[in-house]
Each structure stands twice: as C-alpha cells, then as structure tokens.
C-alpha cells in the first residue's frame, strides 16, 4: 500500500501546485482594498474599504459590480492559495516519510533470519493475499459440467463474459476466487460468480454477473438473489457489485472498470 499512498500524494501535490500557480497569477491582477457586505432588504450592498481605518468604505454601485466580484474573487483566491500551500507542505513531509518506510512495512526491512521470529503488528498485503487465496479449494466449484471456458489461468468458468471479467481483474491486480461459497444465513449458502478481495480495507466484495437480463424468468430469479444478499447485510454498491448484459447489449467493460475503481 505504501506505493499507492506515495502515488496519491504525488498526484495531489501536483494538483495543489497547479492551484498555487493559478491563484498566484490571478492575484497579480487583483484590485487592492477589502470588500464589505451589508444585508439590505432582500439583497446585499457592497462597499470597498481602502484600508483598516476605512470602517464603512465606499459604496459600489450596480454598474461597478465587476469590482465587487473581483474583490470577492481575490479573497477566495488568497484563502484557497493559503490552504493549498499548507496542504502541500504536509504532503511533502508525508511523501518523504513513506518513501523511507512506515511501521506497517518495517518488517520487510529486517533480515529474514530475524523477521521469521517476529509476529508483525500488521500482516503484509502480499501475505494477506496469499493466505486469502489459499481458502479456495477444488471443492469450491459445483456443477462441473457447466465449467467449459478456460480463463487462460487454468480456471474453468461458465461464460465468456466471466472470462472477460476475470481478465480485467487480473490486469488490475485484483485478487479473486471464482464461485467461493458464501453463507448468507444458517440455511442459505450462495456462490457469487467472483469473490473479490479489497486489500486496502481487508474485506471481501461479491461480484455477480447477470448474463440474460432480457429473460423474464432469469431476471425475476436474480432480483430475488440480490434481495437475499441485502437481507444478509451485503448491499448493492457497498459490498455487492453487479454486471449485466442482454442478447443485444453485451457486457460493458468500461463501466465495470469504473465500478471497480469506485468500490476499491
């Protein structure tokens, strides 16, 4: 996760630096003086104060409203610039810190012969993923006769669309287990098409692909399936992800990638 954090910090720093550059440029052409605003009936009256001794200021007529806008914009730019500079300084320090390591990853810097004797405060992402993937066993598949599509990694799947989904997950480095049993209640166990590991939040997300949404009976069956998930506290958009297609509308891979980005 350290690399992801550093990448985020660098992206955010670049964004903040752009704000600082823009506001600095705009402030060069800003008018001097302070804006005073007075509530008047259902609207507002604007005044320009030349200095701190000028308590009331000079009234800005409607024809001079661009001056009021320019003064307000200058105040906004000054504050935004101040906050951007402050945040960027913090991110500079954080980037420096995470570049040299943190408490979670310190064990990776220890000699192997010493590290094997230590119980780390937090399991590394790599070890966590390895242990989680080990929960997949050959017994996790059922109705083997329906598994006719090889996803290229030796995992047999039930549809070409599921193969496409698996390839997207692989390309993005997202760990998954195909048709892993999930107990929704004491009496009901389902097998989501994909059980996805959200490594950052140490949780599972379930992806169901609905491939015949223009079939009335299939649609009704899967509406009930989604309801069963939600009765078990697994809500759509939180820990449940749905992809779908019809005979005329194929799987939208771009939408799937956007959903994965949002949820993970």
Structure, explained:
With 264 residues, this protein is an alpha+beta fold. The chain folds into 2 domains: 2-109; 125-263, Trna Endonuclease, Chain: A, domain 1 (3-Layer(aba) Sandwich). Helices cover 44% and strands 17% of the residues. It is built from 7 helices and 11 strands. A 4-stranded mixed sheet has the order 6-9-10-11, with helices on both faces. Strand 9 (194-198) and strand 10 (203-210) form a beta hairpin. The longest helix is centred in the first third of the chain and has 36 residues, at 65-100. The protein is elongated, with a radius of gyration of 28 Å. The mean pLDDT is 89.
In brief:
The chain is an alpha+beta fold. The protein contains seven helices and eleven strands.
Task: Please describe the topology of this protein.
Layout: H1 2-28, E1 34-40, E2 43-49, E3 58-60, H2 65-100, H3 112-115, H4 125-133, E4 149-150, E5 156-157, H5 160-171, E6 176-178, E7 182-183, E8 189-190, E9 194-198, E10 203-210, H6 216-231, E11 240-244, H7 253-263
Parallel strand pairs: 10-11
Antiparallel strand pairs: 1-2, 2-3, 4-5, 6-9, 7-8, 9-10
């Amino acid at each position: 996760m350290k690399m992801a954090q550093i990448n985020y910090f660098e992206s955010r720093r670049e964004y903040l630096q752009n704000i600082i550059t823009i506001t600095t440029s705009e402030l060069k052409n800003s008018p001097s003086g302070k804006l005073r605003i007075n509530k008047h009936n259902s609207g507002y009256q604007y005044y320009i104060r030349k200095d701190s001794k000028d308590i009331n200021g000079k009234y800005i007529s409607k024809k001079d409203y661009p001056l009021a806008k320019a003064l307000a914009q200058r105040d906004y730019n000054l504050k935004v610039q101040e906050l951007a500079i402050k945040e960027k300084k913090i991110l500079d320090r954080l980037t420096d810190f995470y570049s040299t390591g943190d408490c979670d990853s310190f064990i990776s810097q220890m000699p192997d012969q010493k590290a094997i004797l230590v119980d780390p405060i937090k399991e590394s992402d790599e070890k966590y993923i390895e242990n989680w993937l080990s929960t997949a066993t050959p017994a996790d598949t059922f109705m083997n006769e329906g598994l006719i599509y090889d996803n290229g990694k030796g995992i047999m799947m039930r549809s070409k669309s599921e193969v496409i989904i698996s390839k997207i997950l692989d390309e993005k480095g997202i760990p998954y287990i195909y048709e892993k049993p999930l107990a929704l209640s004491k009496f009901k166990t389902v097998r989501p098409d994909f059980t996805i590991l959200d490594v950052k939040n140490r949780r599972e997300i379930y992806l169901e692909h609905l491939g015949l949404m223009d079939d009335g009976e299939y649609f009704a069956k899967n509406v009930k399936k989604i309801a069963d998930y939600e009765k078990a506290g697994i809500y759509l958009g939180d820990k449940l992800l749905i992809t779908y297609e019809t005979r005329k509308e194929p799987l939208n891979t771009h939408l799937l990638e956007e959903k994965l980005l949002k949820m993970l």
